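Sequence, please.
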């Protein structure tokens, strides 16, 4: 299956389990891979036939900017649910990184892969 990807999408959010984290906004980084048959837009050369990565990015920015969760797991799960429900995507892989959250690590976070049911 072909894929459409979004790499290094930075979004500020209220996220974390500690008191100090509840008082600040932190930058999260989103890397997505979405299963999509790119042969149709390749044949038509029409943006309407694509999985529009700009539209997906905008939707995630809108959602994540307003979100408020303790765990990156929760936010990642909600984001993949939105992508599967609102876009013509059968499969999505999301790497959600929280840079600087652990001293000595460039980033920490989660990777989730979900396939649309049915
Ligand atoms: N698996 C997880 N571990 C941790 C999380 C998390 O969301 N998922 N969060 C924290 C803290 O919020 C941390 O990011 C602050 O530095 C710790 N572990």
């Amino acid at each position: 299956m072909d894929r459409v990807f979004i790499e290094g999408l930075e979004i500020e959010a209220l996220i974390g389990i500690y008191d100090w984290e509840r008082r600040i906004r932190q930058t999260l980084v989103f890397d997505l891979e979405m299963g999509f048959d790119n042969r149709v837009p390749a044949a038509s050369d029409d943006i309407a036939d694509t999985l529009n990565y700009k539209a997906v990015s905008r939707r995630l920015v809108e959602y994540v900017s307003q979100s408020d969760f303790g765990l990156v797991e929760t936010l990642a799960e909600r984001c993949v649910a939105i992508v599967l429900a609102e876009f013509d995507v059968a499969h999505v892989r999301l790497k959600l990184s929280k840079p600087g959250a652990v001293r000595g690590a460039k980033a920490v976070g989660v990777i989730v892969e979900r396939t649309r049911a049915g």
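The helical segments are 39-44, 53-66, 72-86.
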